[in-house]
């Protein structure tokens, strides 16, 4: 498995996503909520708490966004780059994130790793292995990955590829769960093209992939130092905490730039 993958055909995927969104919206509107403003749908909205997971709850009743996505949207607006003139690539975008980028950026490119396909595109999405991307050098102003890098084998290759596709001055804006009390460790590795487990298998929920996505890397406190040492990437972490945007606990958002 290389990154988060989709095994469904594009029409099936679109119908499933629309149905899930409708069902979720009906369920959300029937629950207790509080007012706020959502940076993804750019509107006054209500937020509903669905769990005690601070990265995933509360949820915007209008677009279904979660705190992690709203934290990324806030950082994108504050990057200092001209977002309305930017070309943005997001790997494995959720529906609300995809709509957000299409609205705010000059051009949005979305990609997934579609297992088993040799097609270059599936529907509106590019079929992309993050470690060997079909995009030109310096094609993008911004690349976004949200909770993708814990699932990508050979993650440093993927980081390097992302920076190859970024223009000078561009930024990789990303999230990943990490432990601040431990160093990074691999939970699995690639051997002859196959995943070999080094630690017991752990999966993260993925609404589109049955069984969830395998966690390949437990990221730790040495992330920034590793990117600087191995790839000459300057990575800064920002804790985003904004209850008015439905971000009730601090969420870490990273910005990586070349050099
Ligand atoms: Zn929203």
Q: How does this structure look, described?
A:
The chain is an alpha/beta fold and 259 residues long. The chain has one domain: 3-Layer(aba) Sandwich (Rossmann fold). The strands form 5 sheets. Strands 1, 5, 6, 7, 8, 9, 10, 17 and 18 form a 9-stranded mixed beta sheet that branches. β9, α4 and β10 form a beta-alpha-beta unit. The longest helix is centred in the first third of the chain and has 20 residues. The radius of gyration is 18 Å and the shape is globular. 36% of the residues are buried. The mean pLDDT is 90. The structure holds zinc ion (ZN).
- Overall SS class: alpha/beta
Oligomer: single chain
CATH topology: Rossmann fold
What is the CATH class name?
Answer: Alpha Beta
Write out the CATH superfamily name.
Answer: Vaccinia Virus protein VP39
| Total count of domains | 1
Number of beta strands: 18
Question: Termini distance?
Answer: 30 Å
Mean pLDDT equals: 90
- Could you say which small molecules are bound to this protein? zinc ion
Instruction: Tell me the overall shape.
Output: globular
Q: Architecture in CATH?
A: 3-Layer(aba) Sandwich
Largest sheet: 9 strands, mixed
Given as residue ranges, the uncertain stretches (5+ residues, pLDDT < 50) are none
- Report the helical percentage: 10-25%
H/E order of the elements? EHEEEHEHEEEEHEEEEEEEHEE
β-sheet strand percentage: 25-35%
Output the number of helix runs: 5
């Amino acid at each position: 498995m290389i990154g988060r993958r989709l095994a469904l055909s594009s029409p099936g995927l679109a119908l499933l996503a629309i149905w899930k969104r409708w069902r979720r919206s009906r369920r959300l509107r029937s629950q207790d909520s509080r007012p706020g403003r959502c940076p993804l749908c750019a509107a006054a909205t209500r937020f509903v708490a669905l769990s005690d997971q601070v990265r995933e709850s509360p949820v915007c009743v209008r677009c279904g966004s979660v705190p992690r996505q709203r934290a990324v949207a806030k950082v994108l607006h504050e990057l200092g780059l001209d977002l309305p003139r930017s070309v943005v690539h997001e790997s494995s975008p959720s529906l609300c994130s995809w709509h957000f980028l299409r609205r705010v950026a000059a051009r949005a490119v979305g990609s997934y790793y579609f297992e088993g396909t040799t097609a270059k595109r599936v529907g509106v999405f590019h079929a992309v292995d993050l470690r060997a991307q079909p995009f030109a050098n310096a094609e993008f102003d911004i690349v976004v990955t949200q909770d993708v890098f814990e699932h990508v084998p050979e993650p440093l290759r993927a980081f390097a590829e992302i920076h190859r596709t970024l223009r000078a001055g561009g930024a990789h804006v990303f999230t990943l769960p990490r432990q601040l009390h431990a160093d990074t460790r691999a939970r699995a590795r690639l051997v002859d093209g196959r995943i070999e487990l080094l630690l017991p298998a752990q999966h993260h929920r993925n609404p589109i992939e049955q069984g969830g996505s395998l966690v390949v890397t437990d990221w730790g406190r040495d992330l920034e130092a590793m990117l600087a040492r191995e790839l000459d990437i300057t990575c800064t972490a920002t804790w985003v905490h904004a209850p008015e945007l439905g971000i009730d606990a601090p969420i870490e958002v990273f910005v990586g730039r070349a050099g």
